[in-house]
Prior knowledge:
14 helices, 17 strands, Chaperone, DNAj Protein, Chain A, Helix Hairpins, HSP40/DNAj peptide-binding domain, alpha+beta, 34% helix, DnaJ
Amino acid sequence: xxxxxxxxxxxxxxxEIILSxxxxxxxxxxxxxxxxxxxxxxxxxxxxxxxxxxxxxxxxPNSPSIRRFPPLKHFFHSTGARYSAERDYYEIxxxxxxxxxxxxxxxxxxxxxxxHPDANKNNPSAKRKFQEIRDAYEILQNPQKRAQYxxxxxxxxxxxxxxxxxxxxxxxxxxxxSTQFSGSFQKIFSEIFENEAENLTQDIQVELSLSFSEAxxxxxxxxxxxxxxxxxxxxxxxxxxxxxPKVCPTCQGVGRVTIPPFTATCSTCKGSGRxxxxxxxxxxxxxxxxxxxxxxxxxxAGVDSGDTIRVPKAxxxxxxxxxPGSLFIKLKVAKDPLFxxxxxxxxxxxxxxxxxxxxxxxxxxxxxxxxxxxxxxKGVQPGQLVVLRGKGLPKSGFLVNHGNQYVRxxxxxPTALNERQRAIxxxxxxxxxxxxxxxxxxxxLWQQLLERVxxxxxxxxxxxxxxxxxxxxxxx
Length: 476
């Protein structure tokens, strides 16, 4: 349906333009004795007899057919040839008219990868471009369709195609359309009656900056942004509130149009089964107007930069009953001067004096929930970590729902000493030297003993000594 909407006219109005080009006598269609001189009269008549809605196509066998008319410049989409001289499929794929199928296939894969909607989510025009590329490939990769297309391109633009549309029975009706458009019957009528997949409201993406504390603990934010909102004048209906709705002439109030085996929402009434000819002047019958939208959002605890939060139905308001879009919030978390983060774990650097590092003791360190006391081990080394389990950020996991906090000790050494402190330190240094000498002596003694025992000569001497002692004990 989107391919018809961008031309500025609806499928129904296109048919009316076609019929209006002929005289009343030539344009009139006979259906059970009723003369229909306008498409708006013809469609209800066709539907009343279940000819289009149930696809029974009941009618007089000898009923006159619609007069022949030339093809338009814009057509219903199908996988077959879209007979438009203004669309150059070779130019769309960037190939020449004498290109081989392999060259066409290669060009298609390159362009399809470049303009695929999944790779261009922020580019709405990429979807239309991708569809054009796919349509061109479907025609040019098929030898028969390509030959038909080349023949059509060579004909003058004012050439008239003789097409006879006869509604005598369903097979003739279906065959006429499938032959003329060389493609899917379903795709043709999904264009006329509007495929529901096209009725999607655009989403909105915004960026939200958070402090480290807000991201760690969670918070509530109020966002304001430009968006389509329901019209206040008509409450989003698209027509004045005091208007009287009438039964939709296209679907006869059902809200859906069926051409077996396909069923689609009626494009005339958007599935409501009722239509109103009056239009709301404030929103021009769209049901939405541009305004500033305010949304209250709850940010969960533990989020990080790059995370995205989706708020359903908080995007653009849908036009006349279409579901509203979603709001996507991309988060950006500021750095914290105290805490460093690695996933759900937190790291804190805590400075202590060198005497505290030597003697140990208790210190008070910050956490997300406030300050807490921890024990400094005696003789702690610079960079040594003490873990506070469960004091980190929230996380999802089996049994464990919080990370850990690690306290990294930084030892501050004095840069200036008074006389007494210097004397104490010198005395400590001397004792440290004595202790080092004593330890070195003990180490040397044990080292000599080990070397003596491991000597082979010592082993032989020791063995002889043991034998002599055993002989003496036996003689006694």
